[in-house]
Amino acid sequence: MSLKLDGKKLSLEIEERLNDYISENKKIAKRAPGLAVIRIGEDPASGVYVSNKQRACSRIGIKSSIFHLEENVEQKEVEQLINKLNSDNDIDGMLLQLPIPKKFDEQKLISHINPSKDVDGLNEINIGKLVKNEPAMRSCTPAGIINLLRSQNISIEGKNIVVIGRSLLVGKPLSLMLLNLNGTVTMTHSKTLNLNKICREADILIAAAGKPNLVDSSFVKEGAVVIDVGIHRLKSSDKSQTRLCGDVLLEDVISKVFAYTPVPGGVGPMTVTMLLVNTIFSWQKQFGLSSTLNDLFP
Ligand code: NAD
User: Fold this and answer.
1) Residue 157: pLDDT band with limits 50, 70, 90
2) What is the rounded CA–CA span in Å between residue 254 and residue 258?
3) Can 30-116 and 140-268 be said to share one CATH topology?
4) CA dist., res. 58 & res. 93, Å (int)
5) Beta bridge partners of residue 259, listed in sequence order
6) Is 164 in the pocket of ligand 1 (CB under 6 A)?
7) How confident is the model over 254-279, as pLDDT tens digits?
8) Nearest protein CA to atom 30 of ligand 1, as residue
9) What would you measure as the largest C-alpha separation in the chain, in angstroms?
């Protein structure tokens, strides 16, 4: 039987550790870790993501502050808010909830975030340090995937790993993290030819294309580990119901794989947990706190 990589369970276990860590270290820091979330406009999915993050923070004792700006604010005003949060000593981490309305220069805003508070790991300084394999904030979804693999002692070193997708959010940073851990990584994308043939070489196959059910059994080698990053809400044929699915057609591949992540309950919960971890790493650094969480660094 194939092994389910249960992100929900692992994220709860990590949250328990984070909760204990904060309780123990609050006496030294004399304040809780602080996370600021900037949301612009009314994108409903963003609203759901922000409340999930807020709830996760309150479960473990991080103080979250939400800055919800109207769509008609100017780029300059958002930059001023970021500058203010950069110099706020009670804020350890900050993120800009994406997507934001098109009129804003997203990259410029992210560049304004102090790299040591950039808990999404998207600032170019942090990406540059990832390229150089130096310690820095690492982006959350890739870091969550590394922790999921580690939790089941699935080794990365020397493995053939194929990543489908080359986005700045997932595919690229994930490929670099796996390379830094001595995997032999192939990054593929929408223009890759013979995708399923390349994927069939993978000991570990990671699908982050954002295409529902793209990966069927023709993509998968017997005994491979398959990680599904995609998340899609599909309507039933009579449109009366919706269900979640990933980039992997699980029922077609499950009998072939050694291990897999479910959707939901695989990569998704780990992404939020790694945001909490990054906020605590920044707090730890600021106050010189103990390094007992360092095994969570990808
Ligand atoms: P994106 O659209 O920015 O990038 C998709 C990448 O996949 C691109 O590099 C593109 O070249 C490649 N691609 C698209 N179609 C392809 C195809 N047919 N064959 C091969 N490659 C193809 O998306 P993203 O932000 O990287 O997200 C990818 C998916 O992961 C989405 O479904 C997103 O919702 C999901 N996601 C989930 C989490 C989570 O926490 N679970 C976090 C981030 C993203």
Assistant:
1) very high
2) 8
3) yes
4) 15
5) 3, 225
6) yes
7) 999 999 999 999 999 999 999 999 99
8) 230
9) 58
54's tokens: 């807020």
Band (pLDDT 50/70/90 cuts) for residue 125 is very high
Q: Does 230 contact ligand 1 (Cβ within 6 A)?
A: yes
* CB atoms inside a 10 Å sphere around CB 201: 14
Is the pLDDT at 236 greater than 90? The verdict is: no
Task: Read off φ and ψ for residue 70, nearest 5 degrees.
Answer: -75, 155
Ligand 1 centroid from CA 171, angstroms:
8
User: Regarding beta strands 160-164 and 204-207, do their DSSP bridges make them parallel or antiparallel, or are they unpaired?
Assistant: parallel
Domain ranges of the chain: 30-116, 140-268
Classify each residue of 51-71 as buried b or exposed e, where b means 16 or more C-beta atoms within 10 Å of its C-beta: eebbebbeebbbbbbebeeee
Query: Which CATH number among 3.10.450.50, 3.40.50.720, 3.40.710.10, 3.40.1670.10 corresponds to the domain 140-268?
Result: 3.40.50.720
Contact 144, 271 (CB under 8 A): yes
pLDDT confidence bin for 240, thresholds 50/70/90: confident
Please, which residues have CB within 8 angstroms of residue 76's CB and are 6 or more apart in sequence? none
Q: Compute the distance between CA of residue 183 and CA of residue 161 in angstroms, rounded to an integer.
A: 7
Mutate to test the pocket of ligand 1, among 169, 233, 276 (most ligand atoms within 8 A of CB): 169
Please indicate whether residue 113, judged by its CB atom, sits closer than 6 Å to ligand 1.
no
Architecture per CATH, 30-116: 3-Layer(aba) Sandwich (3.40)
Supply the residues annotated as catalytic.
Answer: 53, 97, 120
Asked if the model's pLDDT at residue 153 lies above 90, the reply is yes
The CB of 93 under 6 Å from ligand 1? The reply is: no
CB 277: neighbour CB atoms within 10 A? Answer: 27
